[in-house]
Amino acid sequence: MIYRHLLPLVALLLIGSEVSLSGNILVLPGEFSHWYNMRVIVDELVARNHSVTVLIHSASYSVNYTRKENFKYTVFKVNVEKEDAENMWQNHINVWINEAVPGIQTLLLFWNILSEIQSYLESICDGMLLNQELIASLRESHFDVLLYDPLMPCSDLLAETLGLPRVMSNRLTVAYTFERLCGQLPTPPSYVPAVAAQGHLTDHMSFLERVENVLLYVALTVVYKLQMITFDKYYTKITGKPTTLCDTLGKADIWLIRTYWDFEYPRPLLPNFKFVGGLHCKPAKPLPKEMEEFVQSSGDDGIVVFSLGSMVRNLTKQRANTIAAALGQIPQKVLWRYTGEKPDTLAPNTRLYDWIPQNDLLGHPKTKAFISHGGTNGLYEAIYHGVPMVGIPLFGDQPDNLFHMKTKGAAVMLEFNKMETKDLKDALTEVINNPSYKENMMRLSRIHHDQPMKPLDQAVFWIEFVMRNKGAKHLRVAAHDLTWYQYHCLDVAAFLLSIVALVTFIFVKSCAWLFRKCCRRTSAKSKKE
Ligand SMILES: *[C@@H]1O[C@H](CO)[C@@H](O)[C@H](O)[C@H]1NC(C)=O
Ligand SMILES: *[C@@H]1O[C@H](CO)[C@@H](O)[C@H](O)[C@H]1NC(C)=O
Ligand SMILES: *[C@@H]1O[C@H](CO)[C@@H](O)[C@H](O)[C@H]1NC(C)=O
């Protein structure tokens, strides 16, 4: 009987001993929204008494490493100026949002920027991996795990150099290229669409769509293999033995994927792929006083929240005017995050802000719709709070993200460079006044909230798991050790087919032989007669 009373105490002690485990974590973040997302994990790790070191290069423009934090920044010098890096990314964005540039010129610009990005990546890799002092001091720190964003170049090479188990944080890449080729994620082309961005490939495909999907996978694989040539050379140079980016990336112990079944089409996953989409979402906090007054002034009509994300700072005058004119025609009040020049057509119902507390606004009861570029962070805040969307995708995974929302009946999609004032106004009216959008978004929201473990707890659990167990090799599929023809059992098929062929051959030959023998005998007999 006494044990019964002791049990809670023992449990408490056990829990106590578990939380006192405090690890030493090295973090390599990406930029912009990728960092905002990872920052939430870092804060949670710190709150659980782990010691965290964020390793960042001197040209980072969205990680403010001069700020005092309750974790440590280690900054390494790279051969790039902050302004140059920032200009490079801004130019990259301007290619996408500038309709004035004709197609072929865009392509050339894009090509230039790609090679610019490549040399930028190499500078960062050099700055990190060839800095002996840095590597030595990181070695001495005896980290337990590396948490990284694959957008931070060479992060997996660093893990390799330091011999650390690793947890990767990632949104499934467009067409699952990295996950499929490097992580061995199965993607049956019959029902897993390579890219939804085309606007018509979902998990239900007709025969012709499946043909298109298979061809897309092949084309994307070829493009990927070509892109990897330079990277593989670099990886081989650094490690001093034949190494590919894909193999190095594929050694991640856990892949934390920043989506979930509220967003993805049902599809097969591997045991080391963990969905943690929406880990940054929180219940809404009260708004700043001035903002709350503006929101309340909207009355029953409510408000619309508008942001194209942290990377887009300004638009062309013409685009900004088209958008502002549409916003002026709806009865709602609009809060628009925009740092460019004030559009001439800005109506009194619209206010511009340099920054908005997006999660708190989306969680506000007066919010009717969210106009968004479709970045994964904003999209998950909309799902979390159940706010239907008008999507204006710009680049990267954004068209794909929004297409998912559209096919789930929770968003209307527009084309940034083609939309007119009327299109935006109609889209807003539709999303706000047709209740099906809200209902569908609320359904996704219920799915999102109805999970056995909160996404942030899940992310932290797996990081701690990897620290406790020095990796997660038991979740690694053996597909990593197979060649492509072994993986698809083509060698087995060839073997079995040759047996069948051999048996058939022997059978046919023996039949022929028997037949000839019979014939000869009968003909001999008939001759005798
Ligand atoms: C972290 O450490 C502090 C002080 O040692 C302790 O009071 C607190 O309970 C710990 N928190 C967790 C989550 O372990
Ligand atoms: C970075 O942090 C420092 C110190 O808190 C602050 O003075 C500075 O304005 C910040 N920079 C940016 C770009 O936010
Ligand atoms: C944004 O502003 C910068 C300078 O302020 C300018 O060079 C650039 O062309 C602008 N972008 C667009 C799309 O208008």
From TrEMBL:
<keyword id="KW-0472">Membrane</keyword>
<dbReference type="InterPro" id="IPR050271">
    <property type="entry name" value="UDP-glycosyltransferase"/>
</dbReference>
<keyword id="KW-0808">Transferase</keyword>
<dbReference type="GO" id="GO:0016020">
    <property type="term" value="C:membrane"/>
</dbReference>
<feature type="signal peptide">
    <location>
        <begin position="1"/>
        <end position="22"/>
    </location>
</feature>
<feature type="transmembrane region" description="Helical">
    <location>
        <begin position="492"/>
        <end position="515"/>
    </location>
</feature>
<keyword id="KW-0812">Transmembrane</keyword>
<dbReference type="InterPro" id="IPR002213">
    <property type="entry name" value="UDP_glucos_trans"/>
</dbReference>
<comment type="similarity">
    <text>Belongs to the UDP-glycosyltransferase family.</text>
</comment>
<dbReference type="InterPro" id="IPR035595">
    <property type="entry name" value="UDP_glycos_trans_CS"/>
</dbReference>
<keyword id="KW-0732">Signal</keyword>
<keyword id="KW-1133">Transmembrane helix</keyword>
<dbReference type="GO" id="GO:0015020">
    <property type="term" value="F:glucuronosyltransferase activity"/>
</dbReference>
<dbReference type="Pfam" id="PF00201">
    <property type="entry name" value="UDPGT"/>
</dbReference>
<protein>
    <recommendedName>
        <fullName>UDP-glucuronosyltransferase</fullName>
        <ecNumber>2.4.1.17</ecNumber>
    </recommendedName>
</protein>
<keyword id="KW-0328">Glycosyltransferase</keyword>
